[in-house]
Specification:
By secondary structure, the protein is of the alpha/beta class. The chain has 14 helices and ten strands. The strands form two sheets. A six-stranded parallel sheet has the order 7-6-5-8-9-10, covered by helices on one side. Strands 2-3-1-4 form a four-stranded antiparallel sheet, sandwiched between helices. A hairpin with a 3-residue loop joins strand 2 (about 40-45) and strand 3 (about 50-55). The two termini are about 30 Å apart. The protein is elongated and about 110 Å long.
Length: about 400
């Protein structure tokens, strides 16, 4: 059984998502230990936290489906697969059509493989999901226009400040999300674009690409008060920018420069999860926005791409049918492998009996071995073809009957 447990932007806001994530992990690890789950993939982004699990443990599906925890979604079987395909196609993203989720799914698969808990079933599933995402992007215009959370954040800044021309922008975080924001900003005629990151090399690399300036993370306070727009997108587990830090930064600049007066209407857009910026900065007149505030832009994007969404869903339905056939054949392969092993045991046992009786005949061992091997191969071929045909017809009763009939305990 394939199981998905998750919390995402569709069921909750960013604050609740932070709180529920701990409960989600606790639920997963409890079941991992109880049912000895060895095959799973975790996907964690600024908009979602998910676990994909494969397990044939008796009762696990029923127990998971009985979970009654606010905001946590549990899906099994085809529902969970359908969600993964929609996710890889960016239909489940806050910004429909964004490309980042496909890379995040690839990274999650690679990580699970390296850590040794990918497994054959989830390997097949995630390989297919990545293929579906690529097919949707190649055959539709779902991702045309380079829409991303980064560009949406820039649009939000323009909504509240007007044209960003001659504005100073500070990007905190030079990871994938920070890079998306910075690249969207680079298309504007800014006065300055500054990049801060804990690893200075990464800040320098991104700043060089954009024609901006990298700053040391320890110098962040010097630039907070003089930036018109601050966009924070780090992976920090703790809050980085607070009211106290901002006030201290202003006071330090005043002490260094007697002529400095803080009179900016600064805007901070926090697209990190967990959040980088505490809500109390609003108490000193700073406009603070987070991922939840991008929903208006997201809804507009979804409406504009309605036709592309329908085409993407048609591709997903087609690929779902193909995957179901693949899983059926995978299940049959296991049955056939066990059947072949069982037949080989019978062949070897009966061959040994015949060899004992014909030990005095020249060449008897080779003749009997070749004969019995040929008989088993011919019988097995017909049986395997018939069972595969039944699998393609999705006749579950006949598949189970074949398994019981051929592989019953001796």
């Amino acid at each position: 059984m394939i199981i998905n447990i998750r919390v995402d932007h569709k069921t909750t806001d960013v604050i609740t998502m932070e709180e529920v994530y701990g409960d989600l992990k606790e639920i997963f690890f409890n079941f991992k230990n109880k049912f000895n789950i060895g095959e799973y993939v975790e996907i964690s982004t600024c908009n979602r936290h998910e676990f994909y699990i494969h397990s044939d443990a008796f009762g696990i599906g029923e127990v998971l489906e009985s979970i009654e925890y606010n905001k946590i979604i549990v899906e099994t079987g085809e529902d969970s697969i359908f969600h993964l395909f929609r996710m890889s196609s960016s239909l489940e993203s806050l910004i429909v059509g964004e490309d980042q989720i496909l890379g995040q799914i690839k990274d999650a698969k690679i990580k699970a493989d390296k850590e040794g808990h990918l497994g054959k079933v989830l390997d097949t599933l995630f390989t297919k999901a990545i293929h579906v995402g690529q097919e949707v992007r190649n055959k539709t215009n779902i991702n045309k226009g380079h829409i991303s959370i980064g560009s949406a954040a820039v649009d939000l800044a323009e909504e509240h400040l007007g044209n960003l021309q001659n504005k100073s922008v500070l990007v905190v975080g030079a990871g994938k999300m920070g890079a998306l924001v910075a690249k969207a900003l680079a298309e504007k005629n800014l006065k300055a674009i500054l990049v801060a990151n804990r690893t200075y090399y990464r800040a320098t690399k991104l700043a060089d690409e954009l024609g901006g300036e990298a700053i040391f993370f320890d110098d962040l306070n010097k630039f907070l008060p003089i930036s018109d727009v601050i966009i924070s997108a780090t992976g920090s587990p703790h809050t980085l920018i607070t009211k106290e830090r901002f006030i201290n930064a202003i006071e330090n600049l005043k002490n260094e420069n007697n002529y400095f007066e803080y009179d900016k209407k600064s805007i901070i857009i926090d697209i990190a999860n967990p959040r980088d910026v505490s809500e109390d900065v609003e108490e000193i007149g700073i406009m603070l926005y987070n991922i939840d505030d991008l929903r208006g832009i997201a809804e507009k994007t979804t409406l504009e791409r309605k036709k592309e969404v329908v085409e993407a869903e048609n591709i997903i339905d087609y690929e779902m049918d193909l995957l179901k056939s693949s899983f059926k054949l995978m299940e049959i392969d296991n049955i056939l492998a066990n059947l072949r092993s069982s037949m080989e045991e019978i062949r070897q046992r009966e061959t040994q009996k015949a060899i004992v009786k014909m030990a005095d005949v020249d060449g008897a061992v080779k003749i009997i071995d070749n004969l019995t091997n040929s008989i088993v191969n011919k019988i097995f071929y017909d049986i395997s073809q018939n069972i595969k045909s039944v699998a393609c017809d999705e006749d579950e009763d006949l598949i189970r009957a074949a398994e019981i009939f051929f592989l019953k305990e001796k």
